[in-house]
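Suppose you are handed a protein chain with no further information: no name, no annotation, nothing but its sequence. What can you learn? This example shows the usual starting point.
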Amino acid sequence: MAIASSVVAVMMAFLILFVRMKAAKKPTNAKKIILPPIFMSTGSLMFLNPLFRVTRGELIEAIVLGAFFSIFLIKTSKFEIRDNHIYLKRSKAFVWILVGLIVIRLALKSYLGRTIDYHQLSGMFYLLAFAMIVPWRVAMYVSYKRLERQLKYDPTIRLT
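A reasonable first move is to predict its three-dimensional structure. Written in structure tokens, the prediction is:
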């Protein structure tokens, strides 16, 4: 089960990379920024099953680590104005950060899997991912709105 979930995690990382590269070719909007964490929040339903519940310490660890990792995603997610539209800039660093996060995740899973129940570990990694995505997307939304205001007040802006 641990190997299967690791394979799925790696596949998801490649899917994220593919979606991110494709997204850079089209203008973005607030909905595209806000919806992923909302969709992901449905995963919280796993905690209705007592097997997935984590201790207070595990909860804090997962949230702190997720928030820390979000800093790297925030730093590599920038927008630009092109042809009076807002685009997400492509970043080579994003690719390496995502690969690094996957490697760290797999290492942590391997190490922590020896002492923490598989279900609880799944809950912890869900919380880590959610705590990483929410601040990242909030920062992206704030940055997007800042550029959107710029466009509203000066629609003649033509930056590359």
